[in-house]
Each structure stands twice: as C-alpha cells, then as structure tokens.
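User: My collaborator sent over this chain with a note saying "see what the structure looks like." That's all I know about it. Can you take a look?
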Amino acid sequence: MAWHLPRKRFGQHFLHDRQVLDRIARAGCAGNPSNLLEIGPGLGALTEMLLERLPEITAVELDRDLVVRLAGRFGSDRLKLVQKDILRCDLADLPRRCPDMPFRVVGNLPYNISTPLLFHLMDQLPQIDIMVFMVQKEVAARLAATPGEKAYGRLSVMVALELECETLFDVPPEAFTPPPKVDSSIVRLVPRPDPMAMDRKLVGRLVSAAFAQRRKTLRNTLRELVTPAQFREAGIDPSLRAEALGPGDFVRLSAAITPEP
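Assistant: Without extra context I'll predict from the sequence alone. Here is the result:
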C-alpha cells in the first residue's frame, strides 16, 4: 500500500519505535479490559499490538485515507473502525464488545487537541475505566503538577479533581515519523473512586478566571465572581495567587458562592 504523507492539520506524527509501542500496548491492555478504544490509530502500528492482546478493539480515526488503509489491513471482524472526529464522539454510541462495560481508552493524542480532548473525555468518565495516552512532555507535567509548581494551572486543577495521574515513561522525538520538535510522555489517568461533590461548571469558571492572569491576586481575578464575605466563608485568603490554591480550595470557594437551596 502507498506511503501516507503525514498531515500537519491533523497533527500526525506516527510512532514507529516497537519497544515504545509494546510498552504502551502492555499498559493499555493491563488487566485484560472488556472494551478498548484506540484514539487516532494512524497507520495501525499500535493497533496491531493491541489486537495481539485482545480479541476486539474499537478505533476512532478522522483521516479518511487512513480509515481505508486500516480497514484493508485489519478487516472488520476484530477492529470496529469509526471515521469521526473524536471531539464530536459520544462514547456511549461507539461499538463495543461488552455493552455494559466501560472503555479502556488508549492513544497517541494529536498534540494540537490533547487538552480539549481530555476535557471532552472527562465529561464522559462513567464510560471510561482507565486512559493511557501519549502527550507532549510539557502537558504531562501540567497534568501532574501540584500547587506552587510552575506547570500548575487550570488543567492540573480540573484533572486532579476527578483523575489520578501517573507519568509512566518519556518518549524521544526520534521514535516518530516525522519527529516532533518536543519530547513526549506516556501518562495513565484513572478516575477517582470518590471524587469531591461539586458543581463542575462553576468550579471550572473559577479556575479559568483565577489562572487567566496568574500573576494577579484572587481578589483581582475573581472580583466579578466572589465577594469578600464569600472568601471569608471559604477560608481562602484573597491576597493569594491562583497557584497557591489546591483543587479542594476551589471546590470550597465554589460552595461558598452557591446560593442555598
């Protein structure tokens, strides 16, 4: 089959290092998941290793040329291939081997959509048991960052509230074709068994506003959302910057500004 020219608009960098592929496949298939979803299978290098370990997988690919290529290579008996933008996918509508079980989600995420995709998937956590992703190393640092660290920000807070994050290993540019200009990391994200009760949209508004001008104090960044009395009720010092607050602090602040029922 003809060589496929990687397309910049899809953020395509094809992983070819078989040792790295094997490590991702082992992490993704640990515990023999009932259903596995691969995001962006590309040329099928990881797909092949996943199918060596599981009887069937689902894959979502946007590039029509790659969908034709994958269908010709793997057929349709064991690879349930969906040609669609993953950012527009409702996981509940995707084919799966065990209808009542969640997906293990695996993929080499396009770097240009990794953050919006993570938020899209967090909207569907009941459909997911574990996620194993390749992301930019810088994004992996943001996912795992804690208060006071340079990488700590909106993504760190929102992920920490609902997911446990672990960086498994790093991947150099030369493992890809074409090589990206940055290092990459494999991360594992597991939904928390006991997430804090919260209004997620309200917490998200507070976090976004607080980090929009991260060098300013909360008194300035949240002045349209939180009154001095509400800061006192939540036990939050408004002279602090957003980077000083832990995820639970933002939840307390959201509770303080929520009207009593």
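A starting point for your reply to your collaborator: The CA atoms of residues 203 and 254 lie 6 Å apart.
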